[in-house]
Design goal:
Radius of gyration of chain A: 25 Å
Structural class of chain A: alpha/beta
Number of helices of chain A: 12
Oligomer: homodimer
Strand order of the largest sheet of chain A: 2-1-3-4-5-11
Order of helices and strands of chain A: HHHHEHEHEHEEHEHEHEHEEHEE
Number of strands of chain A: 12
DNA sequence: GAAACATGCCTAACCGTTTCGCTGAACTTC
DNA sequence: GAAGTTCAGCGAAACGGTTAGGCATGTTTC
């Protein structure tokens, strides 16, 4: 078995209290003993049992993150950033994938509670609210929503301005002279999906244009469906001259579809999209897209979460919105007369 | 504070042992008492403390994964697959990123132990052995190595045949007539890095060719260094006509470098690489590469790990090697005379 | 020089479970 | 009806830490 504090105490010839004091630097210990203790710790490869410490002090050093689609490189980056952010606060990160399934999300959240995680970072898919427990008596794990919001939840949230992101990307296409602009959207039932649709439509009507339904296909934020949708869209007799794609993963599919059909980007069709995933920089042409400050978002989310963990339900729910920046590549060309 | 098992016992007028028996269904309890206990549980809103349970039973339902570079989409996929595999066995996954730093890896491993994770999936960077404790008396967490191996560790491992992968990719280039073949390699101190170098060299010498040192640059398996290395390599007065790149992330950088220099792939330079990351399919030209069966590998790793957790050190260390498949794209062209 | 205080470490109680061994009652068996 | 068997339920000892309180020392203060 692993070494315990008693083994260390015995080896160093001191009491467990002294070992504890050395480990936690919670009391003065003379240099001599201190050195002996540290040596014993090293020799035995001792690491304090988190379970015991938690039982006594009430702190588990676990924060859970539940993402909606771990196979999406965007969320993989989120997890990467979260691991770093959480580690900086002294926590370890438990990762779950709800795979966009509300039932899975519910199951996961009760599991998170059973594991006595101290906090929860949640990219919600919709099944969450009831699972989190809105009843007054049932205890809620401190939670921060990431990327997407829920209606009337009273939870802290960190998002980006999705409306502005798609508005800008679409405006950019319009300013290049495009009028027949199509879209591969995300699901309407997600706050991100909806806001990006609305942002695009707003940009269009602001310039007196309309979005033709036949130029719009709804995707699921994943690559394969977007690929087929793009093929369907672009193989019509009359096709849009530009496309707004609601996320990066779908943009990969769209670019592949364009190439497979034998069209050229940007000569035949301009493409702009939202969100940043690794691999998108490898695309040729270089995709014009709005990028999200993932690391900053996640850091802020963890900051809010840790604060909430400390202060409990006392504080009002906070909602931090990050701006996204338009990164101009060469996937968009002016409309040819 | 939350109710404890003692509160429940007192309320129901039974002992804590009985409450425990009811909760866990670990022993027969007469219907009458059982009902009283359940009622008390409901009234008090009692939920067992996982921490106490963990301390007592030693089961944490936690498996840790430590990857060498979480920002590499390849490992992000590994984590994704691991989450699913581990969940299927009833565990939750704690994710750590050693960021290719041996000291970080050491620190993380003692943390894994402190969290009383029951198993460890490790993509080692080298600092691991001592941290895992090779002394007979110090307790080792059940561990399976993934992707990379360590010398004489006696640990279970799941890898791919890196030698064969680079051998095949290189042979493919040679068969197209290329003779001046360059390489962007991984670090020699990693088993993957070394095996891929050796596989390439073997393929070359098997066909009577030699690898010219000036055509080789060593990378770090990341994009940026590979980008610069490729520029350096290809901007020489005399440049290689084909390039073997030791992983997918570096391939993204290389393709970007080729485009930025103004060369064309495959007309001016052919490229083949190893390993699969999402986003690589979006590349144009479509990259010729060897792909790894990530999901199968990870599933096998988890299977080995769970088995090891059950059987202890009794079993001999097992090493499972997966083959990789050459996926031919259009990033390689026959050498022009 | 005795009282008061500071220092440095130890002893032991406690956190909330699970679980082993035990008790006494009820039920068989001859 | 005494001895042996079951069996539901209990008491208490772990599990591995933290920490309040205590106890020898050594040092200051009048």
């Amino acid at each position: 078995m692993a070494a315990t504090i008693k083994d260390v105490a015995r080896t160093a010839g001191v009491s467990t209290a002294t070992v504890s004091a050395v480990i936690n630097e919670s009391a003065y210990v003379s240099p001599g003993l201190r050195a002996r203790v540290l040596e014993a710790v090293r020799d035995l490869g001792y690491a304090p049992s988190q379970a015991a410490r938690r039982l006594r002090t009430g702190v588990s050093e676990l924060i859970a993150i539940v993402v909606a689609d771990l196979s999406n490189p965007f969320y993989a980056r989120v997890v990467c950033a979260a691991e770093a952010a959480v580690a900086a606060w002294g926590f370890a990160l438990v990762v779950f994938n709800s795979d966009e399934k509300p039932e899975a999300e519910k199951r996961i959240i009760s599991r998170v509670r059973a594991l006595s995680c101290e906090g929860l970072i949640l990219v919600p898919v919709g099944g969450a609210i009831s699972a989190l427990g809105r009843d007054a008596d049932s205890w809620r794990i401190p939670t921060v929503l990431l990327g997407r919001t829920l209606e009337g939840d009273g939870l802290d949230a960190v998002t980006i301005d999705n409306f502005a992101a798609s508005y800008h990307a679409t405006s950019y296409l319009i300013d290049l002279g495009h009028k027949r602009i199509g879209a591969i959207t995300g699901p309407r039932h997600l706050s991100t999906g909806l806001a990006r649709i609305e942002g695009m439509q707003s940009a269009m009507s602001a310039k007196g244009l309309t979005v033709e339904p036949r130029f719009v296909r709804s995707g699921d934020f994943r690559e394969e469906v977007a690929y087929s949708a793009a093929r369907g869209l672009l193989e019509q007799p009359e096709r849009p001259t530009a496309l707004y794609v609601a996320n990066g993963l779908m943009a990969l599919g769209v670019m592949r579809a364009i190439a497979d059909i034998g069209l050229r980007c940007p000569e035949d069709v301009s493409v702009a999209s939202t969100d940043n995933i690794p691999g998108i920089r490898g695309l040729r042409p270089n995709l014009t897209r709005t990028e999200h400050p993932i690391v900053e978002m996640v850091n802020e989310a963890v900051r809010l979460l840790v604060d909430r963990m400390k202060r409990g339900e006392a504080v009002e729910a906070r909602h931090v919105v990050f701006p996204s920046a338009l990164v101009v590549g060469d996937s968009c060309a002016p409309l040819r007369a």
